[in-house]
Amino acid sequence: MQNSRTPQIAIVDLSKDAQNICSQIKEACETSGCFYIKNHGIPEEIIQNAFTQMNRFFALPVEIKQKCIEDNRFGRGYTSFKSQNVGELMGRKGEPNDPLEKFAMGNMDPFPSDEEKLLDDKYKSQWCPNVWPDQDLPEYRVALESYYRNCQGLAKRILSFFAIILQLPEDTFVKELSLASHSLKCNYYPALERGTHQIRIAEHTDLVPLTILAQDESKGGLRVRLKSGEWVDGDPIPGTLFINIGDLMSRWTNDIWVATVHKVIVPEKKEGEAQVIPARSSIAFFVVLNPESIISCIPSCREASGGVDKYPPIHYSDWLSERLQRMNHPPY
């Protein structure tokens, strides 16, 4: 399909009335699975401080960053350059590893339930300790924890709109977060010379119900595939965050809602541009569910699909476990 640079992704203003917001989100989730939000309530200085500190972290010597690798099988701390392959996550073989570095954190609060649950791997994998470069960059932890807490509140707000749209009680999805440790991941794409790579991260969908993405000012990197098959830009827009739904929300809605297919490309060289492409940064907040949450077809979506469930019910932990076994390190 042809590529397009026409803005075709909705910008949802969260200061508007609920009916307006829900109408825009519904259409977006049925056509591309993604939309921008503005007036989202997270102060710009908190977002920018997170970017400032993450870029300081990735500029540290490799040996210092590697102190944060620790037990990375649980998806915490530093992931080194080209050590993950998102194509494998999607079941594809033979693709090159993704040319980026990552740093991940989860919930920093005490486990809010019986601690014996933490003996169970499905809880342990979500609530494992974070790893920080506190001796070398103490400001990093402060900045990311502040942004994380703000995203927690925003995620609940968006999920409440989802519930209203799907004719469910407003707290339906929020209740599924009570024992969840969301994953915040900093993505750093180092500067590279044109011709060495065509893709910065391969085409994929997210596994989780919902992702909140903050981007730096880099243009022409994120690309999104619409339901029509057309690829459009997901460039950063000042004052907004980028929202996309994942495979799990698509399954929950009987595929009425579309999991966002996306990738990060190496932009085409324009006249006068340098051969070296600048570094790019983004921060993804992956909203996860309680491990024992059951994903089964939402009644309004079953009715809209002729009364037939496309998928059997499944526990969230079982859903993730099967998918993540494909990768050498979990992406969420």
Strand content: 15-25%
Q: What name goes with the CATH superfamily?
A: B-lactam Antibiotic, Isopenicillin N Synthase, Chain
Mean pLDDT: 89
CATH architecture label: Sandwich
For the largest beta-sheet, the strand count, sense and barrel status come to: 8 strands, mixed
The outline comes out as globular
Q: How many distinct beta strands? A: 17
Q: Write down the Rg.
A: 19 Å
- Provide the structure class: alpha+beta
The strand order across the widest sheet is 2-3-12-9-15-6-5-4
Q: Which regions are unreliable across 5 or more consecutive residues at pLDDT < 50?
A: 1-6, 328-332
* Helix-strand pattern: EEHEHHEHEHHEEEEEEEHEEEEHEH
Helix content: 25-40%
Tally of separate helices: 9
CATH topology: Jelly Rolls
Distance from N terminus to C terminus (CA atoms, Å) equals 30 Å
- Our count of domains comes out at 1
Task: Specify the CATH class.
Answer: Mainly Beta
How is this structure best summarized?
The protein is of the alpha+beta class and 332 residues long. Helix content is 27%, strand content 21%.
